[in-house]
Amino acid sequence: MRRRRSIAGLVSVLALAGAACGTTPESHEARGLDVTGTPLVLRDTVVPLVLDASGTAEPIQRAEVATKLPARVLEVRVREGDRVTAGQVLVRVDGRDVAARREQVNANLAGATAAHTEALAGATRIRALYADSAAPRATLDAAEAGLARAEAAVRAARAAGAEVDAMGDYTTLRAPFAGVVTRRLADPGSFAGPGMPLVVVEDPSRLRLSVTAAPEAVAAVRAGMRLAGTVAGEPVEAVVEGLAPAPGGHLVTVNALVANRGGAAFPGSAATLALPQGERRAILLPDAALVREGDLTGVYLRKGGVTDLRWVRLGRRAGGHAEVVAGLAPGDTVIVASGPATPATGAR
C-alpha cells in the first residue's frame, strides 16, 4: 500500500488572469512562444488525502457445482466461457443406482403400507373385543404396539423415498444462478466423487473488492460510504459493504461492492480502494492545459511577459484534473491553448 493524494471529484479553483488579460481567448506574443488560448492563474485547492489499499476483486456469487453421488459423468453441456441462465442443465451423471434404489424404496413402502393396513384392522377388532370385555388388556396393548410399529415403518419408508428423490436431483446438475462458466472440471466418462466440483459458475455482474489496512487507516470508513477505487487499473466507484478483522494480524479487511458493467473486469483482478485520511492543499491543472510530447508533460507558462513551455511532474489524476507535484507554484499563470504554439515574433 502506498499513500497518495486524491483529487477525485474536485474541480480546481483556477482563477482567470486579471482584467488586463481578460477572459476570452487571446494571442500571447513574447520572446518564447506565440500561444493562443485562455490564461488561468493557479491557486491552492483543498483535496482529500487518501491511502490506496491494495487487494482483489472477486464475484459476489460463485458456485462449485457438484454431485453427492459416486457416479460416472454422462454429459457435460457447457464449456468455459459459456453464459448460462438460472436452472439451465450443466451436467448429467449416471443415475442407474438411484433408479434401483427407488424401486427398492417403493417396494419397502408398499410392504410397510400393507403391514400397517393389517395392523390397523387387527387393532380395531381387539379394541371392539376389549370394549365388550371379550379380550384382555394385554391383547389390546400388543395390538396397539403392533400398529405403532407399522406406522413407524411407513414413515421410515416415506423418508427413504424423499431421500432418494433428493439424491435424484444430483443426477442432473443445474446452474444455481445466471452467470458464466469459468471452469469445466469434468468430461463425459470421467468419475465424479461425492462433493467433487464438476463446473464452476460465477456471476461477473457485481464484484466485491476486498482490501486490508491498519485499523488507524480505516478509522473514517463506514458501511454505505462511496469510495473511489480501481479494478485492473480502471477507475470505479465502490460502495462499502462492511469491515471485518483480517485473519492472521492486526489488520482490518474492507469489503466494497462495485457494478461490473458489461463484465469488463475479470474476477480476481487486482484492485485498490482510496481510504480517506483527511485533507491537504494542492495545485490542480485541468487536462486541457497539459501539453504532451512523448513521455514528457508540460504547460504553457506565462511569466514576465514571456510564454514558454514548462515541463511539470504530475501526481494523482481524476475528474479531468491532475495534481501538480513539481514545476509550478500558486500564482503562476498558464495558458490553455486553443491552437498550436509557434515561435514568437522576434524570439531568439
Give a verbal description of the structure:
With 348 residues, the chain is of the alpha+beta class. Helix content is 20%, strand content 47%. It contains two helices and 23 strands. The strands form three sheets. Strands 2, 3, 4, 17, 18, 19, 22 and 23 form an eight-stranded antiparallel sheet that branches. The chain has a six-stranded antiparallel β-barrel with strand order 5-12-15-14-13-16. The longest helix has 36 residues. It is elongated, with a radius of gyration of 37 Å.
Distance separating the two termini: 48 Å
Order of helices and strands: EEEEEEEEHHEEEEEEEEEEEEEEE
- C-alpha Rg, in Å? 37 Å
Shape annotation: elongated
Q: Roughly what fraction of the amino acids lie in strands?
A: over 45%
Uncertain runs are 1-31
Instruction: Tell me roughly what share of residues is in helical segments.
Output: 10-25%
Total E-strand runs: 23
Structural class by SSE content = alpha+beta
Sketch the major β-sheet: 8 strands, antiparallel
Mean pLDDT: 82
Number of helices: 2
Draw up the topology in text:
Layout: E1 2-5, E2 15-16, E3 26-28, E4 33-41, E5 44-66, E6 71-76, E7 83-84, E8 89-93, H1 96-131, H2 137-169, E9 172-174, E10 179-184, E11 191-192, E12 197-213, E13 226-231, E14 234-245, E15 252-259, E16 269-286, E17 291-293, E18 296-303, E19 306-311, E20 313-318, E21 321-326, E22 333-337, E23 342-343
Antiparallel strand pairs: 1-5, 2-4, 3-4, 4-22, 4-23, 5-12, 5-16, 6-8, 6-11, 7-10, 8-9, 10-12, 12-15, 13-14, 13-16, 14-15, 16-21, 17-18, 18-19, 18-22, 20-21
Helix pairs in contact: 1-2
